[in-house]
UniProtKB/TrEMBL annotation:
Pathway: Purine metabolism; IMP biosynthesis via de novo pathway; N(2)-formyl-N(1)-(5-phospho-D-ribosyl)glycinamide from N(1)-(5-phospho-D-ribosyl)glycinamide (10-formyl THF route): step 1/1. (6R)-10-formyltetrahydrofolate binds at R63, N107. It comes from Hymenobacter polaris. The gene is purN. This is Phosphoribosylglycinamide formyltransferase. The chain holds residues 42 to 239 of 239 of the full protein. Keywords: Purine biosynthesis, Transferase.
Amino acid sequence: AKLAILLSGRGSNMLALAEAIKTGPLRGLAEVAVVFSNDPAAPGLEAAAALGLPTASLPSKGRKRAEFDQDVVAALQAYRPDYVVLAGYMRVLSPTFVRAFAGRIINIHPADTHQHQGLHAYEWAFDNHLPETKITVHLVDEGLDTGPILAQQVVNLEGADSLAEVQRRGLAVEHVLYAETLADLIKRNAAQPEGTSC
Ligand code: GRF
């Protein structure tokens, strides 16, 4: 399956997915069609290029959401992705975008999406001294972190005395869970291709 990986920042999940394609659960199942960013200066874009992955970007700054997303959809479609994988893509997708790749957009969120949506989930867990958080991988629909949940994993936060420590524990789980969940999804969809179910 061809993946379009979308990011806006650091790109640690993108790197974990690239590694999982080389030597982990995504081996033989996926390839990176493109790493795309809405920020041409995103460190994750440079990290992808350093790995020899195809990259593309369109600056979202100052653009209207619907119009920008139309350009992004067109740019991504040139790579014919089977899945659009959000990896720290800091934009809410417009309905046009979601419909263009319906059921094939996947996101990772550092909290239970039933309890927390949107930005700053690790800050939320840390500020509220939560004993745990629940990393969530889900399909993206037109709402903010409201799509069907594919997998969740609890991270113990007891004794995590800094935000950095909370993030360190959480990201370690994210990096494993995302690749595994994506591998399961690809296998499941390959076993039952679209249109053949009754
Ligand atoms: C991750 O915590 C992810 O769950 C959230 O954004 C962050 C991206 O981090 N959606 P990175 O760019 O993958 O390092």
